Amino acid sequence: MKFLGLDIGTGGSRAIVIDEGGKVIASATVEHQPFASPHIGWAEQSPDDWWRASSEAIRAVLMSDGVSPDEIAAISFSGQMHGSVLLDENDKVLRPALLWCDQRTDQECHEINEKIGETRLIELVSNPAVTGFTLPKLLWVRKHEPDIWQQVRSVMLPKDYVRLKLTGVKACDMADASGTLMLNVRERKWSRELLEQLDLDAALLPHLFESTEIVAQVSRSGAEATGLIEGTPVGAGAGDNAAGAIGMGIVSPGTVSATIGTSGVVFVVTEHPTIDLKGRIHSLCHAIPGRWHMTGVTLAAGQSLKWFKENLAAGKSYDDLTELAGAIEPGSEGAIWLPYLMGERAPYLDPNARAAFVGLTASHTLGHMARAVLEGVAFSLRDSLEVFREIGAPIGTIRLGGGGARSKLWRQIQADVYGRSVETIEVDEGAAFGAAILAGVAVGAWPSVDDACRQVIRVAERTDPDPYASEFMERNYQAYKLLYAALKPAMNMITGADDK
What we know:
- The chain is α+β, with helices and mostly antiparallel strands.
- Helices cover about 40% and strands about 20% of the residues.
């Protein structure tokens, strides 16, 4: 048997096929159109472009050597979380989807807090009102685009829209749903009380399933579009954070990962829902029945390096920048990067936060700034680790994923900043790999996600912190922690937040 995992990311859709031993037989990525930003802080994409890219990626892997459509025993999904896909009565997309990094809903978050109460909101859905989450996006469209809102009959998350196109079935999993701000995370069901207080019809939302369940089959039209066999089982899947964690083997309580993609995510598994009453980090359902996780998110992690490369290091490749950064002493001789290009999620929940280089002198070079970016992203992720420690989550060895795991320098920087050994795994295929594992579990290839991960995931390398470098990192991290509060008044003035 072979299993297909499909991840609908921000930059593209990625399909992979694995066998029962976890070997990747084929993979393909098809890029999406870049997200549109009509105004500062806005981010929108076309859901139908996700379906185009996903169809092409599936066709590509099915045409690979060693893969035949009739060998695919099941398919499952992963995808960018929090996005809002609004459909009419004929399941047509009404407007571009508002993405996870869209920051326009600050006022709606304030209105949710006023209507529900900040403490009561966390009691109901285990999380604070955050601009990136789905619920405030719905309220924004209802307020600012009433003509569109009157036509809305279904609300979908990104991966679930692609599954709808593939199968004709509307469904959502617990892990992805817990990032909408509409799920009772403790009880793993939609929060009727919250929806009623905000005058939202629960009928707009899809049925809920655990990530390890089969929820549909490939339809005739889905088969024609992708080359899959009609009737192939399709699983519920999971949001990219939970699926990515499974793809790294982060399944047992207390296991921790730090993943750097466009955003950065720190993830720890818990046996019970654990809530930060200060609302600094997220408490969500894991893609494993009966387990939960805490997550801290840096909105512009890999995006910080991408922005730096494109705007301040013209003509340099990522390898060039890493080489320049590697020639600089730990601590970047006092240069510090605040990675708030898209506002910030954890631990500040501040859409008005702004990025900055601090501590620059005439002696600093491009290499210093490149290293400061790598260190600043790690500082931001450590902020979430500090919250985990504060509320009692055990933190041991940290498993790395994404671009931050592929760079030897960034691995060492993370070990030095976190003050913990870090690991990488042999096969780092991210969330698509986790989705493929979920597909296999859903059709009984493995008895559980835990068993699957024990069989197919192996550690490749371990990096220990360097005591000398850690000294400089600790000094800079303590300075980094002071800078947000020091600059916040200026950030609010620049963004006009003081006028609201």
